[in-house]
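agent> call fold_tool(seq_1)
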Amino acid sequence: MKKTTVAYYPGCSAVGTSVEYEKSTRAVCDALGIQLEEIQDWSCCGSSPAHTVNHILSAALSGRNLALAGSMGHDTVATPCPSCLINLRTSARKIEDPKLCHKVNALLEDPCENPVEPKSVLQVIVEDYGVDEVARLIRKPLNGLKVVCYYGCIMTRPPELMRFDDPENPMAMDDLMEAAGAEVLPFPLKVECCGASSGIPRKDIVMRLSGKLLHAAEECGADAIVSACPLCQMNLDLRQSQIRKEGYISKPIPVFYFTQLLGTALGVDKRSLRFDKLVVSPKRCLEKISG
């Protein structure tokens, strides 16, 4: 089994609303031999609102975590959350800028001089570990399951910052799901916005945008949607009953994290994958796989 070790930044949602993503991420990485060394005393990266208040303070919030990861002796820090990732990458770019570095470090007790490279867990698995190596370890293929992969709007964009996969037609999750044995259907809206955090001030926006995504998945004939973003998964899963009432879809569509399905194919104990946390029942899909 191939061995890879990286610093690990869980992010705030991992200990709350997306605990199933966190648990399944750890379980999958353990099954693959990817060692995640959690950053001790990590703190919030500022998520989506910090940069709207102060760009330098936002960079410092993530810069602190980059400095801690660097002190662990790693050159890579992985996070499962795209929102955390874009903040970490933005911070690293500001610290590398001579005009901004001193402003960011002035807010830090321990300055971040040479930031480690932030990557998504998805990127680590696909690029550093390898899809072929994952395929070799599949124990329970997802035979018979039809899925569409939804990346959201920031996993690969802006491309000059994220530097991962194709910004308009990413294939990382598609390739992993195919390696796991699922039938991956073409999905034209894989990088369209779900409404993100607009659900509180503008519920109508999230209903319309997420409804469009769910409708497209149903039209494609998908049994399930596969996601890699806590906020995207929440909008499509938690709000799905409301969206159905608006007539966007005719039947429930389970919304999995890619780590939950990949973990299933790797033979990971289901208790570690936390299917019980999903709002839309995954029972039909799981029975289809086992049958």
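agent> call fold_tool(seq_2)
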Amino acid sequence: MFKRKKICVVIPAYNEEKLIGRVIKTMPRFVDLIIIVDDKSKDKTIIAAKDAAKKYKRKLDVVVHEKNQGVGAAIVTGYKHSVERKMDVVAVMAGDAQMNPDELKDIIAPIVLNEADYVKGNRLIHGQAWRMIPKVRYLGNSVLSLLTKITSGYWHVADSQTGYTAISQAMIKKIELDNLYKRYGFPNDILIHLNIHYARVKEIPIKPIYHVGEKSGIRLWKVIPTISWLLTRRFFWRLKRKYIIDNFHPLVFFYLFAVVLVIASLFLLFRLLNLYLDTHRIPPINALALVFCLVMSGQFGFFAMWLDMDDNRELRVK
């Protein structure tokens, strides 16, 4: 226990036979329960986890998926199991030993002290992040983090992709677990769902750990377009749910005007190009209308973002 709160760590695992034992061995002693969710591994992950738990005398629950569903689905399964076990605070750590167990106390403390409902680690603000994180992943992470700021409403969250997190049991019970994205877009999607319920979110600086023996299965060329499309859909879902259905806010009009003007800009651009190819000249009125639509769409969009930031300012935990 930690300050009289029951602490649980969910470890989504897929083919982590080599490193799962190290994760269990180094788990802080204040953790009351470790939940391994095996996502239909092809190796001996379960056996290695049970052997390590027995050797190091740790309380361990193992839940096995009948088929591979993705890391997000594994975390959801762990969340549900933690509620059944009546845990107060639920952290998530990877099974590949790329999360420093010494930082777990900092991750769970804001929730234990009721300062936050959800805590995320932030690797990007570490002084050595640019040198320690593979450059392609660093840049891909930065792009997705920027998109997630706009989509989720948590403008202060700078590292959306880290999986080192903690959440209160009360918040787990509020969010629609079965509607969360099941694969690598899970960290982004859960922020959007948390925002719907006005969850207080805090970021904690953590040290990035790489090259501990496992090769990442993430393919950015595939993941970034997939998550970007997910964020686009979830963005409009959040606006409808939070600012129309639950509590109407005029910022939806500004976003609507921005979208309409962008569509009009595309139409005018297509018309301008078509006329130029036919006549080799650009009609001044067409060009002026295009510039006007682009400028106004930007103004409406930025003003809507400002209103969204203002509406969510109380959800930032410093």
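agent> summarizing second result for user.
The domain at 7-242 is CATH 3.90.550.10 (Spore Coat Polysaccharide Biosynthesis Protein SpsA; Chain A). The beta strands are 7-13, 33-38, 60-64, 89-92, 118-122, 165-168, 201-205.
agent> awaiting next instruction.
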